[in-house]
Write the structure tokens for this entry.
Amino acid sequence: MNRLFLLICFFLCSVVVVSGQDVKLPDPVKTGGIPLKDALSKRQSVRAYSDKELSTQTLSDLLWAAYGFNRADKRVAPSSQNRQEIDLYVVIKEGIYLYDAKTNQLLLRAKGDHRKDAGSQDFVANTPLNVLYIANLDKASNRDAACMDCGFISQNIYLFCASEGLASVVRGSFGKDKLHKILQLTGKQEVLLAQTVGFAK
Ligand SMILES: Cc1cc2nc3c(=O)[nH]c(=O)nc-3n(C[C@H](O)[C@H](O)[C@H](O)COP(=O)(O)O)c2cc1C
């Protein structure tokens, strides 16, 4: 009975998400990983990916490492004047989701496979995960600060990937207008950067 239960849990964690609805992620694992200096030595950009999926556990761990809360109301990444104006949107096969770090949920924002819309480079459409950095310019101290705040989050993802044997590349190349349309962003929201994550080929 116990083995069956564990098997079911493993299966549920391996599947990425059920499409068409919000997703409650498993609690992130906030400890472990390789030593920081080893991660720094391994960090690099990768542009050739296999189509192997990420588990929901890995997704949860990655998003927490990127931009989760590590204190009551402050995050793993700094932000200018603590405005926390960057939202992370997760582009996966099942849809585009807003990462809600407080509740550890993915909130559905656009149904269906939009990975091909997350960037112009060939590999983007087939990688399991693309993260969009969307600034809320109403919250930001200014646009320059929002651009800089993206950089900290992006480096967290690079280092997480280096530690977990994943591959990543941050990207400025994507069709902004198309993404704005798909996500029905307001005039005060802007996609500033994107980042691909998966397994190296
Ligand atoms: C703001 C920014 C935008 C970038 N845009 C792209 C991009 O659109 N496509 C891409 O393949 N790499 C992009 N890169 C990755 C750089 O090309 C890469 O970091 C650089 O070549 C150094 O390689 P490394 O990351 O392996 O050290 C970008 C990097 C930054 C910081």
